[in-house]
Amino acid sequence: MSEDERQRDERIKAALEALPDRTYRIFFLNMVEKMSHVEIAKQEWMFVWQVRRHMRRAIRAIAKAR
Questions:
Q1: CB 32 within 8 Å of CB 58
Q2: What does the alpha-carbon distance between residue 55 and residue 36 come to, in Å, rounded to a whole number?
Q3: Smaller CB count within 10 Å for the chain: N or C?
Q4: d(CA 9, CA 14)
Q5: C-alpha count within 13 angstroms, C-beta hemisphere, residue 56
Q6: Dihedrals phi, psi of 20, to nearest 5 degrees
């Protein structure tokens, strides 16, 4: 792994750690646990549109970190 790649990975990690807890949890459930937005909404007692909003926040944070 090059120095640039390592720095990019560190920036992404920092961006994820800076997310609000709920946003990070929703991102984790979707990307790591492979849960659908509907499944997450049911588990977290929220609407699907709210799950999508949290996912947009997380993806924007990662995009900025790149």
A1: no
A2: 11
A3: N
A4: 9
A5: 6
A6: -60, 150
pLDDT range class, residue 16, cuts 50, 70, 90: very high
Q: Of 57, 45, 66, 49, whose CA–CA distance to 21 is shortest?
A: 57
Q: Which amino acid is at 39?
A: E
Phi, psi angle pair for 45, to nearest 5°: 55, 55
Burial class (CB in 10 A: 0-12, 13-18, 19+), 1: exposed
Q: For the chain, how many residues are written? A: 66
Q: Which residues, including other chains, have CB under 8 Å from residue 14's CB and lie 6 or more apart?
A: 65
pLDDT of residue 1: 78
